[in-house]
Amino acid sequence: xxxxxxxxxxxxxxxxxxxxxxxxxxxxxxxxxxxxxxxxxxxxxxxxxxxxxxxxxxxxxxxxxxxxxxxxxxxxxxxxxxxxxxxxxxxxxxxxxxxxxxxxxxxxxxxxxxxxxxxxxxxxxxxxxxxxxxxxxxxxxxxxxxxxxxxxxxxxxxxxxxxxxxxxxxxxxxxxxxxxxxxxxxxxxxxxxxxxxxxxxxxxxxxxxxxxxxxxxxxxxxxxxxxxxxxxxxxxxxxxxxxxxxxxxxxxxxxxxxxxxxxxxxxxxxxxxxxxxxxxxxxxxxxxxxxxxx
Length: 294
Known about the structure:
Layout: E1 5-6, E2 25-28, E3 52-53, E4 55-57, E5 67-72, E6 75-80, E7 83-86, E8 103-107, E9 112-117, E10 123-128, H1 138-156, H2 166-169, E11 173-175, E12 181-189, E13 196-199, E14 221-224, E15 227-237, E16 240-248, E17 251-264, E18 271-278, E19 284-291
Antiparallel strand pairs: 1-8, 2-7, 3-13, 4-5, 5-6, 6-8, 9-10, 10-12, 11-12, 12-13, 14-15, 15-16, 16-17, 17-18, 18-19
């Protein structure tokens, strides 16, 4: 898929049928990560030399959002705010915390950019230039699918031991058709510059606080953009979307791989879900939906 692409991260602290819980997603504006209060007890999860800093671009007349740009392996990458990160999992700002913007795209040369919202490991994207028709590398998709399957197995088996991560599942580069080299990366907070940077997928994230186990209510659905008759019901626990089911008359549901994150909105009844669904043929599509399942 070519530019632009929607990418956002939102998380849930806890849900109850009779009690509204507060969101643990914090939106940050430019340089908020660099305030004196947030500099206390900083960690060192990833060295600055591994990060590609993104520059804050001056707002155009009428704009109410921040825009960040950086050249990543020869491709211009643009991120539009607001930025969001999980401040319960990461109470102290440090380099390497997964962060999500509102829109992600490329600029300059004709380039390919694709992304998945993995949920627990944050976002991950792949870029290449030139595009030669805009075809993603099959290795990236295959490795990502294996990662999601491994993570779900670990998650539903009680989450004991070491969790699978993008760092151990994906490569920093993939080779596509005609020898095109694809680069992978992810968006992270940093304690210098604009507060936003691109990191390699191989870095180690800071330690996180555990999120309570809660179930995403049934009834939240997503239509396939290529066939509106196909309706996926999202399935998830804690803040993670784990799969999607398609129901048909007189048949058991077909389960599809899905990844992403979800949150109970401040009104206490609407759920916002953002992520990726993988079809049976290996293709995928991204979704961002807010619904009241009751």
